[in-house]
Amino acid sequence: MTVHEKSAWIMTFALLVGGIFYGLTVAAMSSGLGMIAPPVLPTVLIYTIILIIIAIVGHILAATSSPADANEVVDERQRRIADKASHLSAYVLGIGVLSALGLYLLTYNGNLMFYVLFASWMLSQLLEYVMQIVLHRQGVY
User: Fold this and answer.
1) What is the four-CA torsion angle of 124, 6, 20, 106, rounded to 10 degrees?
2) Nearest CA to 39 among 113, 101, 141, 126?
3) Rounded to a whole number, what is the distance in angstroms from the first to the last CA of the chain?
4) What is the pLDDT of residue 141?
């Protein structure tokens, strides 16, 4: 497994843990209010801190487990995999942005628009890392 694939696994895990935390927190706040809770900065900050901690610890563990691979240079194969994964994930982000804008025009609910945009961003990043893993495993360039 290359260092780039390990990095994709780490970031996939970080995004899943952070996303689950954020989703459960918003669901709990919303059920207490009886409507969609407004976004609050502390929850976004905790989500960001979770991502940062998992990414740092995971990448340190990956680098110490195979120090020879830690400084691996990005080659043409890696670039093509990253480009293809990024290209596919951009569609998810674009669809999410259009959906959020459409929902806002129908409901005029800024909180809902924020959450759809935030979820689109999280899902597009998650898809990018998952696609990198899949493309590494399949050997597709």
Assistant:
1) 0
2) 113
3) 16
4) 58
The whole-model pTM stands at 0.89
State how far the Cα of 114 lies from the Cα of 71, in Å rounded to an integer.
38
Angle of CA points 141, 18, 73, to nearest 5°: 35
Q: Of 53, 50, 61, 63, which Cα lies nearest the Cα of 20?
A: 50
Identity of the residue numbered 72: E
- The helix/strand count (H/E) of the chain reads as 4, 0
pLDDT at 66 over 90: no
Of 45-54, 91-100, 118-127, 131-140, the least confident? 131-140
CA distances from 20 to 2, 4, 71 (A): 27, 24, 32
